[in-house]
Amino acid sequence: SPTNATDGGIDTCCKDTQTELAERVAAIDVAVGPDGSDQNGEGSTEEYDTVFSDNVKDIQRNGVNSDVGMNEFLPSQQSEDARWRHGPKRPLTRPVLSSRKLSLQERSSGGCLTSSNAPGYGPYATGPSPRIMRRPTIESNRVSISDSEDCVQLNQYKLQSEIGKGSYGVVKLAYNENDDKYYAMKVLSKKKLLKQYGFPRRPPPRGSKASSGEQPKPMAPLDRVYQEIAILKKLDHVNIVKLIEVLDDPAEDNLYMVTLPLPNRPVMEVPSEQPFSEEQARLYFRDIVLGIEYLHYQKIIHRDIKPSNLLLGDDGHIKIADFGVSNQFEGNDAQLSSTAGTPAFMAPEAISDTGKSFSGKALDVWAMGITLYCFVYGKCPFIDEYILGLHNRIKNKPVEFPEEAQISEELKELILRMLDKNPETRITVPEIKVNWM
What we know:
Blueprint: H1 15-26, E1 49-50, E2 60-61, E3 64-65, H2 80-86, H3 104-107, E4 114-115, E5 138-140, E6 145-147, E7 152-154, E8 157-165, E9 169-176, E10 181-189, H4 190-198, H5 221-234, E11 243-247, E12 254-259, H6 278-297, E13 300-301, E14 310-312, E15 318-320, E16 327-328, E17 335-336, E18 358-359, H7 360-377, H8 387-396, H9 409-418, H10 429-433
Parallel strand pairs: 5-11
Antiparallel strand pairs: 1-4, 2-3, 6-7, 7-8, 8-9, 9-10, 10-12, 11-12, 13-16, 14-15, 17-18
Helix pairs in contact: 6-7, 7-9
């Protein structure tokens, strides 16, 4: 049958088999006309068919095999996005009949084909994978807390050991009795967040001139948390941390954010004495590019891409985390004017005193370039003890490549194009995908 066809060629020793195959094709629910259109008049050529073959089993990351099996059905025209993501692979099982749409029977057998006319799909697809129905974030406004001998019960969750800690709260391992699974629960104190914002700010130095344009008022920490929740609720991607549930009882001080459990380990600590090989860096960087491309499609600028915000999952894939300073935008790109993020990863235009707005997408690309440099060298390309010195290096100093680590010329070129100090000529995410990748 088509779902079990291989690359070994068509058996021509039996004409009866070919006749039977032709009869089956004629009986398929979506017939293909001579002009390549189906019964509804819609074109369905191979060129525009897209498959999301994320689950190829022979990929290894950090010695971890993907635990998802090979798709039972793969069309002969594999999508550019899927080929790019996984690189050269062994020949895939291909159907004999690929210039038509999947029948309902084939769709239920694990095949997944989407038309390029559908929003969010194509050679550079950035929409959520159609293989899995999106699971909406649960929002709970009532929180029931009870203490037991061994743990604290919070609704259906049993809070266990602490796995992380931040300025405004902690992260705990939480066991969900309803589905018998473990999750990570971030516990934030709303009082601490409000108190932090309520501290008086230092007045400007005497004699300083006010800026000609009124600076936007910084967002309160608690508002940042709610903005992060609003952003995470929109996202559903293998390379993005998934928000499962939010528990926010107005009568309680704490706000709880439940995410899928992840190892409390960033992909790299910077500086590092053990940078990645070029091939390992390539694997991780692919995940970052796909995650950022998805964010930009969802009209979100991350603004704080760096190794410590890239968590390594048990499957060996990168999960982008920490959307506390992210921005949502309308149109094709965000036009930003405020400074946010980590100084060593900020782009020259973000620390400029010209007062001009700048591209949000280009900002993320710069931070991705700094991150990629860290992957192969274990340190940032621009380092200084003082913030003003750091800003000067970022704006004026060229990128230097240490001799102790040998990397390909293609990788050097990509880093240089990502760290182009002019955001208008800086490489874009779609261009990155056809470069060193």
